[in-house]
Amino acid sequence: MKRTFMKKLSVLGLSLMLLGSTLLMNGCKDDTTDGPKADQNVYELISGSTKYSVIKAAIDRAGLQSVLSGSSAITFFAPVDDAFLVSRTDPSTLSDAELMKFLQNHLIMGKFTTGDFPQPGFITSEAPLGPNGEKLSLLTTRASGSTRVNGSQINSSTDATNGILHEMGDVVEPATIYDQLSFNPETPTFKTAIALEVATKGELEKPGTFTVFAPHETAMTAYLNEKNISISRLSPSDRRELVNNSIVNAQQLNYAEMTTGKVTTRGAELDVSVSGSTVTLNGSVKFRNKDVQCTNGVLHIIDGTLTK
User: Fold this and answer.
1) What is the CATH number that goes with domain 177-302?
2) What fold does the segment set 42-168 form as a domain?
3) What is the pTM of this model?
């Protein structure tokens, strides 16, 4: 009887171990894609669904089918038809060249699941829409279980034989500098400061060429705490200094191109020091995110303010 009881315990223990292993494997399974193993390429996935009729028509007119059905690994953000009802871009009004660039803003070379995206951080699209034809940056964020690209939500993801298709609830619009400040959870207070400078906000929403050094939220918090004031109550003169000292007109200053010396912003001359591959502004301010490419210039996120 004792031997039989021990045998039953052994079998039960083995069963529990197998069950635990199965649960552990399922718990670790990548849940960023839906459905069985891929048997269609990205273009076939789009063509086979009625919810992508607008973006498919745009792809066909622009001639992007070969890329979306090719052998190179790609990531494509496909807006559903309803997304275009509220989009600021109507694909039917774009020239063929404009349409191709618009679609390229939804295209990343290489396969990126939502788990591969920096959170928050930036990836580079194939859209050459910067002031000098630079490829635009896309901001990826995740909050409350939702992944967004330039503020547009990913509804679901499906593996393809040549990469991955992300279904988008909104169009991934080409972003201006002000757009990127608005999307980014790391720059809300500086974005508010610019929004209060109405003329400046308007400029950063339009075509042009600017370099903006945007203080990270932690830097803005420290700056306002030192003054014991909120951004909405900051004096117009202090707010203008904060904003103007952060904007360079008519130049795109990429991180790797900066040299030791001076940079003239709207409000002041900045001291730039380059040591090896590290750039420092005004003696102590470092870069947290650099070379965020926008349609109207480049955005850098820094760890301090550029006020006196």
Assistant:
1) 2.30.180.10
2) FAS1 domain (2.30.180)
3) 0.88
